[in-house]
Amino acid sequence: MDSKPLVAAALFLASCASAPDPIDEPARIIEPDENSRAALRATLHEALGVSVTISDAALTDSSLLVIENQPPATMENPVPQGRIMDLPIQFRLVRNGDDCILINQRDRSRYRLTNTTCMPE
Asked: Binning pLDDT at 50, 70 and 90, where does residue 4 land?
């Protein structure tokens, strides 16, 4: 029995197998600029539905970003005194292939950061 067709078929099937998906690696932003900071603010606004204030150094030293809930104050409803007991919202920056992905740790939703360069921690 000629085994060449069988070997050829096995090689063909092996070549059709897709490469594994890239894995998420905790990452931090490198060389941040106004465009990357704007992209991060826009992504956080998309994820949370509100504008947030972040440091210019956000995600440059660590892959973890913690957003504390600060209720808005008005003349009729001033900011409550004392501790806010809501858990802070945590985001993790990962690199997946060439993409910088921000992951909301509460629900694992993923947001691709544009205009941003990141490297694994």
From this structure: low
- Mean pLDDT for all residues in the chain: 85
What is the three-class DSSP state of 100? strand
Phi and psi for 39 in degrees, rounded to 5?
-65, -40
With vertex at residue 103, the alpha carbon angle to CA 99 and CA 108, rounded to the nearest 5 degrees, is 130
Extended beta strands in the chain, E state: 25-29, 64-67, 89-96, 99-104, 110-113, 118-120
Query: Which of the 8 DSSP states describes residue 61?
Result: S
Give me the residue spans of the domains in the chain: 21-70+85-120
CA angle 29, 64, 106 (to 5 degrees): 125
Tokens representing 3 are: 């085994």
Name the nearest CA neighbour of 80 among 89, 65, 70. Answer: 70
pLDDT at 84 over 70: no
pTM of structure: 0.74
Distance CA 18, CA 29 (A): 30
pLDDT value for 77: 72
